[in-house]
């Protein structure tokens, strides 16, 4: 779903109570994570609610899946996954999620805790180490020789 589609959907509702219900509905449609994926390695730090993020590398794009124990947060995750997932890393790095949230009116309607919890998404490549490493893998050509002269292939079997 594009930002324009989300904006049009949000405009269908007259008040924020209906928009919150819609956000929760989006969260209910998320592909469920397995019990194994609800692990500490996938847990997003800094969130008041429990949030899990799974990053899958595909040929030339990244796919994200996520979940939360809070309904509204799960819905916000659904929005972010729609905006970020199944896109090339360069598009993800260039995308301004904070501006998107502002365009949807979410910035003024989220609690301070929710805004703080979503800060990593607003600058994903700088603040979430697992995403930064994933982006670096895509930006770096395979079999590049490291500073020691030893081949450094993070795009292959080491994953």
- So how many helices? 8
Q: List the helices and strands in order.
A: HHEEHHHHHHEE
Beta strands, count: 4
The proportion of residues in beta strands is: 5-15%
- Distance linking N and C termini: 30 Å
Number of domains: 1
Sheet with most strands: strand arrangement: 1-2
Task: Kindly report the average pLDDT value.
Answer: 75
What's the alpha carbon Rg, rounded to whole Å?
Answer: 17 Å
Q: What name is given to the CATH topology?
A: Sufe protein. Chain: A
Percentage of residues in helical conformation: 40-55%
Query: From the coordinates shown, what is the CATH architecture?
Result: Alpha-Beta Complex
Query: In this structure, how is the largest beta sheet organized?
Result: 2 strands, antiparallel
The structural class is mainly alpha
CATH class bucket = Alpha Beta
Which descriptor suits the 3D outline? globular
- As residue ranges, the low-confidence spans are 125-130, 138-159
Describe the overall structure:
This protein is 47% helix and 11% strand. With 159 residues, the chain is mainly alpha-helical. It has one domain: Sufe protein. Chain: A (Alpha-Beta Complex). A hairpin with a 5-residue loop joins strand 3 and strand 4 (151-152).
